[in-house]
Every structure is written in C-alpha cells, then in structure tokens.
Amino acid sequence: MKNAALPLCFTLASGLFLAAISSLGFAEEPSPIRIDDLYRLDSPQGVGLAADGGSAVFSRRWSDRKERMVRHSLWRSEGDASHAKPLEAGEPDGRAPQLSPDGKWIVFLSTRPLPDGRPGFTSVPPYSDPATDIWLMPSAGGKAIPLAGRKRPYNRVFSDPFFGNVAFSADGKRLVFVADEAKEARSPEEVANNVQVVRQDGGEGYEGYGPAQIWTADLAEAPGEVGATRVTRITSDDFWYGDPQWAEEGKAIIVHANRTRDQEAVRYSINQNYDLWRIDLGDGSLAQATFGPGPDVSPRVSPDGKRLLYQSIPRRGSHMDVFNLAIIEITETGPQSQVLFNHHVSGEAPHLPPSFPLPRDCWLSASAFYYTAPAGVTTKTQVIDLANGIAAVEGTPESLGDEYTKSAEARRKLTPPADAFLKDRIVATGEVISWKSVDGLDIEGILTKPTQKGAKAPFKLTLYPHGGPHSRSTLGFDFTVQVLAANGYAVLQPNFRGSAGYGQKFIDADRSDLGGKDMKDMLTGIDHLVKSGVVDANRQFAYGISYGGYSTCSLIGQTRQFRAAVPQNAVTDLGMMWGLSDIQSWTQWEAGGRPWEVPLAIRDHSPLADAFRVKTPTLILHSANDRRCPLPMGKMYYQALQANGVETQMVIYPNEGHPIKQLPHQEDVLTRVLEWFGKHDVEGEGP
Length: 687
Fold this sequence. Notes:
By secondary structure, the protein is α+β, with helices and mostly antiparallel strands. Among the domains are: about 200 residues, Lipocalin (Beta Barrel); about 250 residues, Rossmann fold. It is about 20% helix and about 30% strand. The chain has 13 helices and 34 strands. The strands form eight sheets. An eight-stranded mixed β-sheet has the order 27-28-30-29-31-32-33-34, with helices on both faces. Strands 10, 11, 12, 13 and 14 form a five-stranded antiparallel β-sheet that branches. The protein has a four-stranded antiparallel β-sheet with strand order 2-3-4-5, with helices on one face. A hairpin with a 5-residue loop joins strand 2 and strand 3. It is globular.
C-alpha cells in the first residue's frame, strides 16, 4: 500500500547521474505527478515585508520526508528570493510571522517548548488546531524568546482564521491576541470520579480548547527572558471572542462574538448570531456594535479610525451564505451603520460579495479597501473607494496605488516559488465547461484531462464533487486531481446547484432537495462529456469527501453507471448527522426541520435509505475523530452494504478530524483510491 521513499544512497546516486546527463546536454523530460510528491510540497506563507522593501520574513510550510509530517519554520530573504535562508538552526516550529511597526522584532506563533525544554501549554488532540504560543525574535536574527514564559496567565494561543489574530497596536508597544486559559474544564467531582459532564465546546478543529478569550500584552523596550512586561486578560466569561482589532488609538478593541446561549461550532459553518462588540480598555465595558440576526464578523478598522468594515449575513441560513459588505461610520452624531449592497435580494449588484475573511490589510486609504470575491470557478480581487460610491473600481490594489505597487513588486522579488519540484512534473490544466441540467439550469464545472502517457479519448472518468454543499471547486492546483490525471483519469469537478460563487439564489437552489437535482446536475455533466466523446460511458468512478461523500453515496443508490466508488467522511444519514455532528443547524436548514418534525425528509434525503439499491463496489474511508461527519455514519453505511452483499471495505484513520491532515494518511488514501478503482477497471466490462 505504501509508496516508500527510495534509500538515501540511491537517491543521491540518481541525482549525481542525472546531473552528469544534464551536463552532456540532455534535458530530463518532465514526469507525471505521483503520490510520493506529497513529501516534496514546500511553500512560503505569511510573507511579511520590511519597511524598506529590502527583506522579508515568511513561514516555510514543508513536508519533512524523514519525519513524514508537515513542518513550519521561519525564513528570511534579503535582496531577492535566491538568498532566502532559515532564521534558526534546525528549523524549529515557526508560524505566521509579522514585523513590529518599528521593524525591530519578528513576532510569530510556535508549538515549540519553552527554553527550559518543558511544554509551554496544555496539549490538544492531534486532530485539532495545533496549540501555539507567541514568541519574539530580533528581526536581524538571534535568540527567540517567549512572550510571557512559564508565568503567563493564558494557555494556548488560537491560530485559526476565525478566532485567532495577533496584532500590534499602532505604536508597536502592545499586542492583542486570542487564547484560552489554563484551567481544568471538569469540576473537582468529575475529576475525582473520572467522569465528564457534556458541555458545549468549539467543535471541529477546536477540541481540547477552552473558550477563546481576548488578552493584551505590554511589550518590553529591551526584552530579556520574556518579551512582555505585563499580560492582561480583557474578556472573562464562557463566550468565545475572535479576530480582535485595535480601535480609537488603542483605547478600545473590536471583536466578533456570539454572546447568545444558542452556541454551535463555527469551523466551515458561519451562520450563527455573531455580532461585533467594542471593548473599552479603560473600564473593561463591553458594548454591542451590530444587532443583525445572522453573523456580523471579520471587523477591519480604517487607518483613520473613522470607519469599521465588516462582513454581514442578514439571516441564520445555510452554513455558508453569501456575505454582504457593511460599514459603521463614526460621525459627530454617533455611529452610522450601512450595508453597502444586499446580495440576498435581486437587483444589479455594484460589486461582488466578499470571501471570508476580509484581508487584514484590506484598507488602502481612509476611504478605499480591497477584498477577494468568489466568482464561479475563479477568485477575483475587488476595490471599492467609498469616496466615489460603492461600485467596484476597475483595477486591483496593485494597479491603483503606487505604494501598493512597489510593495507587491518587492514581495514578489523576495518570495521563493512554491513547490519548485513541479517544474519537473507534467501538471494538468483544468478547463471550464458548462452544460444544461435536467430543468435547464446552467451548471459549470472543471474538467481535467489525463496527463498519463498514451491516454486517449474517450477517457475513463473520476467524478470528484466538492463538499459543503455550499463550497465550490476552483481552477488551480489540486493534488488529488493531479494524481488522478497522472494515472489516466479525466476528472470532473462539478459546481452543482448549492455551490458558492454563483449568488444566493443558486446556493438556496438545493435546499430541501439534497440528493435530488444536485445529483442530476452531476449526471448531466457526465452525459455531456460522453456525448462529446471525451469520456467513456462504461469506465466511470466516483470519489468525494464530506458532502462530496454524501454525493457519492447518493449517486450509487440512484444509478449503476459507476464501476467503483469511494466516499470519505461522508454524510450518510441525516438523523445521525443532526444528533452527532457539531452543527445541528446544517441538517435543520437543509432538511427543513428537526428529525421528529420532518421525519420523511430526514429519511428520504439520506443515502442510507437507498443502500439496499447499491450494487457498486464501495470503499469507505473515515476519520476516527471527525466531529463534523462522525464515524458512526460511515460504519452504519458499511454495515448496510455488507448486509446487502455489496463488495465493500472500510478503512478508519486514527487521530484525524474532518480533514485528513497527516501525510502518511493522505498517502494511504490516494493509494487506496487508485487501487480500488484499478481493481474494478476491467476492459470490456460495464459497471
């Protein structure tokens, strides 16, 4: 099952041999991408540019082949990217670096132990977000020191895009950040009796963490053993606060928080009643700044402090509705709130709706800002200058501002290329295709043709639907798609009804019809490719994750056109999904109510109900610790297929959550998918 790495001596010898060949004038031909390339992935992240534009710091995210794990370390490039080098010997863990306003310090997150070798915080499960602490290092290089050391009052610092943020005050003398506190969640009685009372927690990605709280740190002028002279807790309750922003010249902080009693997980699912809150750092008072029924999130304060930009959804709907842009303006008569345009109603929109989250550097001036926007299979950058209205301005931040242009040029010059090994690989290019579904609805998708030598149309096909359902497939490099293409498969990634990037009406189009017309959208896409002579009518396979797994299970219960199928971390039963998942609202919204309120809908839209119809050989993959689509759903579907005599197998991945992150497990998944498909791809036989 494993693609074992070549022995080191053989690898070196091969490299010397190829170098000798090249020196004779022969060029090595690019080779297909292979699963083993998982251990060659290497890219810069979080590039921070020095004020003079002459150097940059970044986090190197790379696959450590020896340890078979993803690592992060701090690097700096000076002059240009060819001079990039690590800031620390041995490349200990370093993430999300940023330079202090005066340019003297690099502040970063790290999972490393304290200087005395002991852990600096309580551990969390390996399938959760990694627990980190804040560290400082002189920007010129030198010894890294912890923010507060062993005596700090906080525990683990959040590093995710929803809650986590580490930000300097304008004068560079303070930090604001998000962390939980070091305390036992269980009562003394629970600990004594070794029991656990069920409590609401953060759900997928946050297991092991306590409530996200806001903290500030006063930084020392000349840090010694630690970087802070004082750490102050700003919030102190059981609610979760996130994305703190400095406001009012450091006198206040703006955060988003759901301070209602209707709490739910927020990872990949932003539909709860989050509001913006102002925290006065003088008296500690908390004041509500927005009052909408849905999520008001991602606050961004303008450079002059007079405007607060944020994202807003006017309802508590699907797990990822279309966001509106909203502004709070500070005027002489008080704050004035305005939604720039409501994308939930019909009408010609002056700008595209934003992706989540807003960029942290989104403000270009006191009146102009930029953001990214989902647009079908692409992502576009939009600029709005409020001084001239709310319509998007033609151009990008780089093309509209000299300062931004210089910064972007310097950043490109100083940033090393990602995944340099790809220059020696054959990389497939996806093409956008469109077709009409059964009811005439226009559907778009991405078709990637095989890169395997000798592959000829009509190709064998892998249908690879995205999750959500309110996510989308986009153009760009996808490792799974590339591996499938390298092994002779054309890959179809359909943006079926319900997908993001096509407006609110399109997102709502599959509500109360999961497994219905959205499946027809996919099947008509395949029919289109068969009629076009691109895809073989008799050599079709399906592989999907999460709602893509739901789609895979639904399809094999409705048709026998697939030779083999692989659902991964799939939703198979809406009743179990409501009862076991960390987002009950997902089932309630999509099915139209709770299990006892709409029992027929819960049953009829569950792939498990059609398991008796399945004849397709099915490999079921599932994470052991998935909070979003819990393991019992995979087990029950496996039992149902077994009971009905379907050829099936189930593989469980320990210490994995909803996304499978560990490199050996990713390798195993791709290897098993190819083997399962290959086993059932027999020439001359239909599905």
